[in-house]
Each structure stands twice: as C-alpha cells, then as structure tokens.
Amino acid sequence: MTNNSDTQKIRPAGRHILTIGRDLIKDNQAAIIELVKNAYDADATKVDIFFDISKDKKSITITVKDNGHGMSRDVVINKWLVPSTDDKLHRKTSPKGRILQGRKGVGRYAASILGQDLLLKTIDKNNNQTEIFLEWSSFEKAQFLDDVEILVATLKVDENSSTELIINGDAKKVQEWIYVDEKKEKNTKYSEMIDTLITELQKLISPIKKLENNDVFSIVVHIKGIKDYENTVEEEIRPVPIDDFYDYRLYGHTTENHKLELIYSNQKSLNLPDEIIILDVTNYKDIGDIEFDIRVYDRDSQDIYNLINRGLKKFDGSSYSFNEARNMLNTLNGISVYRNNFRIRPYGEPGYDWLLLDKRRVDNPSLRIGSNQVIGYIYIQSEEKSHLEEKSARDGLKENEYFNSFRNLIIEALKELEVRRFNYRRQVDKEKESKKLSYKIDSLASFDEIKSEIKKQFKTANISSEVQTNLLEVIEKEEHKKTKIVEEINKKIAVYQGQATLGKIINVVLHEGRKPLNFFKNEIKNVVFWIRELQEAYSEDTLNEIINIISKFATNSKALIDLFNRLDPLAAGKRGEKKDFSLKKVLDEAFAVYNEDMIKKHIKYEIHCDDNIKLYGWKSDFYIIFTNLIDNSIYWICEKNPLEKNITVKVYPYQKDYAIDFIDNGTGIDKEFIVSEIIFEPEFSLKANGTGLGLALAGEAATRNNFKLEVNEYENGAFFKLVPKGVYDNE
What we know:
By secondary structure, the chain is of the alpha+beta class. It is built from 23 helices and 22 strands.
C-alpha cells in the first residue's frame, strides 16, 4: 500500500462570515446593539444611528456612525477583517479605560443581517481614512473564505477620528422596519421594530448606575421615511426617569463572607423605615459579586394613579396620563441583567419571563409577583469572576449550573420582597380583610345595627308601642332563622376544612397505606398456593406456612384500620356536636399519621400531657390544628437540618382551662410575621410551593372551639401556643 500522508490546513467556507453573523445573531435589534457596543469600545462619546427609507419603500440605508478613535489600515486588515479575533479578549480595556463589551470577535458581522452590503469608513487619529466594501452575497458564492477579495483603500483626510458603517437593504428589509400592527397602531410611535429598538437602546445602558468616572456615551436615532418622508426625526435615547418611583424596592449586594445584604423599601406609605435583610448564600455556586436593584409596582388603576401623583414625570417635565404610565410600565417591565453596565439580551424584555414569575404567581396570586409588575436590574461581573458566560448568538447566558444558581439566588431575594409586600397589603386592607372567616359569616346573622337604627326611628315616628314590639319580634325571628343558617354554614365549612387538611396529608396517607396493601397484593398468591398444597396433601409444615401468612395479614389489616381510624375525624361528611374528648389521644393520633415520615427524617417528639385531661369541643378541629402544626414543623426542621430534630408539646392548666405549647427547633419565624400574625392568613406561605392553607385552617379551627392559636418569639425555632379564648374576652 502506498503511503500518502501529508499535512493540510483547515480553510473556512466562504459563508462562514454569514454563519457567525447573519445566522447567529437573533434579530435586527441585536445587530444594531452589537454595532453600538463596538462604538462604545472605540471610546466614542456619541453614536448616531440613521434610518433612511426611500419614498418608494424599495430600499433602506442604515448608517451607524461614532466619534471614537477609529481604526488604522493595519487594524482594519489584521483585526477587523479577521473573524473571531481575540484582540479584545486580551486587551480587556479601551485606550480610555473602558471595559470592552466585545470579546468574541464576531459582533461586527452582525451587520450582515441588516442588508445586502456594507461600506466601512474609518478615520484614525492620524487622519488616515480607510474604506472597505463588502457584498455578503460574494461570501455565499465563494467556496473558501480566502477566495473573497476585498479592496482596501486608504487616503488622507482633514477630519477627526470616527467610524461609519453604511448598510444598504432591499424592499424586504424595508418591510421589516416599517411594519405596524393595525391593532396596536394607536400605541405605535414609529413602527413595531423601530419602537422595540428604541426601547432596547433605552435599556442597553443601566438607567440607574452611571458609567465609570462619569463617562459620557450618548445614542441618537435619526429616522426618515417611516411616518415622515420629507424630514428626519431625531430621537435621543434616554432611560425613562422611573428610578425614583416605585411601590416596593429591594436592593443590595453579595459580600465576601457569603452573605446577601439587602434593603427593603416601601414608598406606598409615608414614614415607613427601610428594613435590612441578610441572607446566607454559602450554598450557592461561586458566581462572583452580584448587585440587586428590583422595583415592584402594584398594577391596579388606583396604584398607577398614585404613582403619577407621587411625581412621575416625562423627560420634558410633563406628567404622564394614566394610559401613558400604564404603557410605560408594560414596556419597561422585566428583570434585566447587566455586565459592565450594558444589558445582556434578552433578560429584561417584556414577555420574556426567564425567572418563571408568572408560573409561580398562578399557584399563589396574592403572595407572588408577576413579570409585568417588576422592573429589575441585576449586575454581574466578568465571565472569569462570575462563571456566567454569554452565548455566541447574543441571546442570553449559557444555562449551566452557575446560571441555575444565579437564577435561584434572584428568586430567593424576590421572596423576601414578596412576603413583606404581602404583609403590608394585608395590613392596609385590615378593615376589609383582617376579620376571620368565621367572624364574617357570623356577622351575616347579626341584626343589631338594624334594630338599633329602627329604635332611633321609633322615637321620632308616631308608632304605637304594640306595633313597635311586633316589628322587633319579626326582626328577631328572622335573626333567629339566619343564626340557624349560619350555624349550618359553619358546620359545613368545618367539614370542608377537615377534608382540606386530609388533602394536604394525602402523600403521607398513601405512603403509609401502600406497605400493607403491597403485602396483601404479594401474599394473596402465596396463600392460594399453600391452600392448594394443603388440599392435595395434609402437612403440618404447609399448615404452619398458611398460619404464618394469615398472622401477617392480621398485622397489616390492623395497620390499615388504625390508619383510617386516625383519618376519620378529617374525612367525616357531617358535623357532630361538641363533646368531651381525650386531648392526649388526639395528640397521639395526629403524630401517628406522620410517624413513619418522622422516623425516616430522624425527628423525635415528646408529648407532656396527662392521660386524664379532657377538652370540650370538636375533636376533628383539634386534629386539624395538630396535623397542620406537625406538617409545618417537619418541613422547617428539615430546612434547618439541625443535629438533633425535636418537636415538643406541653399541656398545662391555664385560667380554669388548659393551654398547649407546640415547639420545634426548625428555622423559626421572623418577628415581623409574628407581630402581624400574617402567617395565619390564607395564601401566605414561606414554603417553596406552599399553599398558605395549613395555619389558616388551624387558626379557624381554634376559633371555632373558643381557643386562639398564636405564635410567640423563640430563638431556637417555632413556638405556637393554643390558649383558651376566654383569656382574651377583655381585649
């Protein structure tokens, strides 16, 4: 065999330029932004973007011109024309000290998505102007990249340094830029794409964090041919002045000792002090220093009017109308990610819910915030420090373990804002919503206010005392009827709440019941087998096998019977009368539901309660109280994961009755939530996927039995106390 070995070189195909440009870049706006970033890297203080559409709409010229340091002929040939050059990767900063935005050496080829050709004019500091002209079709036709010959011309000029990119597009490109959705036309200033570009440019540079050393970089868009064919309209890009106006704000940064220091602020009420929040981020991946600045807006009509009344203004100092303010919030919403003060697309684009806020909100709309309610700015460090790498297509960060950690950290921070917002909104609505459900329902049967008003009218009206008595009797009879109806409603609600608690613990029930059921399923065939063996030939060994299996049947049957007996109080379809019941027995049965789960998670419990203690009330309600408290304790103890995991219940005499302390050594409860008692509100939950039902159901069950479920401050975990309601009669 002939040895035919030699060396070869990899030759990129001609269309390689289009692959890293037109095919890689997401859209027209992304291409413009890449060119604007290049202007920034060139130390420009201003970049002008010109759109010139012919009157017949058959051609468009897009020009991007900056007043930066320009490029010499050598730089154009050996760097600008070299795809994927590592020049900026090594330099890292511009001559004036700016941190360079471009690093992959492909951004300039984004121009290929904007038109059919490109004319580059660049003037260096020595007044040398270099020009090159690229027709993108020639790269498509060429077999190899080095087959394309590019003319480079250089001449002396009497002009300051600059770089100008002139791009020509055909009628198809025109249509992309002038398209207007007729349904949205009334809200369209120029066109769908131009409006979006302006919004993207407004968000490009952080609107709340100034460039280093008060650096200046302005962007001006010049538009001709979309709505005005004779004149050019100028649009200076300025961030919307919303940074001082918000309903709620959370801002701060990570620290060297693996903490996230945040400040929570509320502008909806005067004189509310800011709150400092410290989160431990030890368990998160090393994603460098992170800065947060998140603003949340309530979107009800009155909330938007309040935002305007607090002083929200346009650039010219005029006030927003309601529709303008709402549209502005619709345009700017989203949480943006910035690196070196420039936004990483698409984070922060309206409708791009990369944190899945809307999905979270569906599960708990009262507590969670939606993507259209938040305007946020997150600042990250370089790829080397944060391990958060941008995709080559400029469509976000690579979604790896570091990105997941980054996303989870933002969600954890948002939770802190959400619970405080929820707390505040509940407090504001106290007159309307703070009454417990049972109180609201009971008020339906109360005619006291009506009787009082009628008696006032009697004093001024000429009505006999006999008629007055008859009228009041009619009202009292109706009041008695309504009281009976309310009693029935309360009984039915109690039944539903018991069933709701049963639904909450169904996983525990299924897990505990599955073992005996699996035993029955597997052993039935063995019983059948041994019975046949016994029928064919009597044997004591065979009989003993059958007896052994049957004894296990008895054990597993008892396990199922005990399980369902424990669940009976929650599954009852009707509400019985109040009775005396053994408190110790209810506590034992409630813990028995979770016994297997607690053993698996190494959680121990102690019950300090005399066997003879009896309470008067509905046994099922106390079952609701204790099962929900136990369920909560198991969750939060496992979250904290202490060396020893304990739940302690103490029952003791208290004001002619009994009080019950329920204590665990889990994560505990913030003082803010203890004082406000918001943890007993429906839908409020600090669990990752919590419904906010457990403590609300427990609180209602306590109230029905003339007890109050309260939570006390406790350094080592959670401390709930069940106290007879008579203690509070004088409040």
